[in-house]
Design a protein that fits this description.
Chain lengths: 325, 128
């Protein structure tokens, strides 16, 4: 079994491309006076978050890699390194990304790490680089375990994961409207991912795809961007700081404060850590479901339109009660 | 990629992008009219019923009176952020008022107010 297999660290090698593409998008917006918005401090915060993400990978990457190598030593399977194996690995890792990303929005412990990526009210190529510093602490590396146990080498799994992240860079833009229909049908695109970054009730918890949008269509989380409902970027409760430390850790601090509140049962403490974001033991906060229900109470004409399909009738009267465990 | 080269690229890239953004006028803070402030508050808090809106003379902040109590909306770069005035300290500042929220996600807002505005905003924020 091959222990020594190396692939280039594609994310690091893509850094010059990232910088050039950001400058090109900015010039495009300045010349055309359309296609997006930039703000100095917002962009710098996003870039510092990106740099911190690379630094945390250098400092903490050994934890995930050590775990993967331990799995590699115990698995009897080795699929080799052919192009077809790399392609299969890429597709399966994209499926892995879909579920990790979905958990990143539906499990507060994982959201605490991922929230910073959604914390900008802007949507441009710098937003793509607003990445987590604390991904290691979510332990989502375990979701990659099946790939390695199936015989994909850890270096290959990390390589295709890097390619996946690089693909997602270019879709963080308003400069591109829609791609050709066949491309929009299969691939994640700027339009699909704009919807994912929306804080509008319609767009909450949709379009988790990395590269292939087919996963969202398969698992029922696809919501197409609506021309009549312009995407409002950011968080349901937008943060009021550009400080990267606060951006990186604010939800972790929120989790800690909630879990250690006096007078809660063990079940309630666990729910504050692992239930969907917006959970509260007394129903005083809103989850995605209650936000959508409240929106439908104000705008019943949106019922059964994309993003609101399948929500039960007459939910608004007791939505706060339903959100409490 | 050698670490020194990566570090140079990252630092140089961030500095170049920040300088270009600043020189092309992208560091301006949001200026609001009363109708903007009302729309922005509803964007942040769609369930609130607004009773009155008071925008600061410089247009960078607004005091929002809602049915459930006062709230503060202020410019955050080109955008806005809002918080209900529930758990906070109001501190005198040479150029107006300094609002310290007991909220890790929005620690403080400095409001540039005239002397008249400062007195008026204090009364409005202290109203039950």
């Amino acid at each position: 079994m091959t222990d020594q297999l190396t692939y280039p660290d594609v994310v690091q090698w893509a850094v010059p491309f990232f910088i050039a593409a950001i400058l090109a998008e900015l010039c495009w917006i300045l010349i055309k006076q359309r296609g997006g918005r930039y703000e100095t401090r917002d962009a710098v915060t996003s870039l510092v978050m990106g740099a911190g993400n690379v630094a945390s990978g250098i400092l903490l990457g050994f934890i995930a890699y050590g775990f993967f190598m331990a799995l590699w030593r115990i698995t009897p399977l080795d699929l080799g390194t052919s192009v077809w194996v790399v392609l299969l690995c890429f597709v399966l890792d994209d499926l892995r990304y879909y579920w990790v990303h979905r958990m990143g929005h539906r499990v507060r412990w994982v959201w605490a790490s991922h929230v910073n990526h959604h914390s900008s009210q802007h949507y441009n190529l710098t937003t793509a680089l607003r990445q987590t510093w604390t991904g290691t602490f979510t332990f989502m590396m375990v979701v990659r375990a099946p790939l390695i146990l199936l015989g994909f080498h850890p270096a290959m799994v990390l390589f295709v994961g890097g390619l996946n992240l690089i693909y997602q860079f270019w879709i963080h833009t308003e400069a591109i409207g829609r791609m050709p229909r066949w491309f929009e049908a299969v691939m994640n695109t700027p339009s699909h991912h704009r919807a994912h970054h929306g804080r509008n009730a319609r767009y909450l918890d949709c379009n988790y795809a990395g590269v292939l949008i087919v996963w969202d269509k398969l698992f029922g989380t696809f919501v197409p961007e609506q021309d009549h409902d312009r995407v409002d970027y950011g968080l349901v409760h937008n943060i009021g700081t550009f400080n990267p430390i606060r951006v990186a850790f604010h939800e972790w601090i929120g989790v800690f404060r909630d879990v250690t509140r006096p007078g809660l049962s063990l079940r309630q403490r666990l729910a504050y850590a692992f239930a969907p974001p917006g959970y509260s033991h007394d129903g005083s906060r809103d989850t995605s479901e209650t936000i959508k229900a409240k929106h439908l109470a104000r705008h019943p004409e949106d019922r059964d339109t994309p993003g609101f399909a399948g929500l039960p009738e007459g939910q608004t009267g007791d939505i706060r009660v339903k959100s409490g465990l | 990629m050698p670490l020194e080269l990566l570090l140079g690229l990252v630092v140089g890239g961030i500095a170049a992008i920040a300088a270009l953004l600043h020189w092309t006028g992208n560091s301006q803070r949001r200026v609001m009219m009363p109708e903007d402030a009302r729309a922005e508050w509803h964007r942040h808090f769609p369930d609130d019923i607004i009773r009155a809106v008071t925008v600061s003379r410089d247009g960078h902040a607004a005091l929002i009176e809602t049915e459930t109590g006062p709230g503060l909306l202020w410019a955050m770069g080109a955008d806005t952020v809002g918080r209900h005035l529930l758990d906070y300290d109001l501190i005198e500042h040479p150029r107006g008022l300094h609002v310290v929220f007991h909220d890790y996600t929005a620690p403080r807002a400095t409001l540039h107010l005239t002397e008249d505005e400062r007195r008026g905003w204090r009364i409005l924020t202290e109203r039950p």
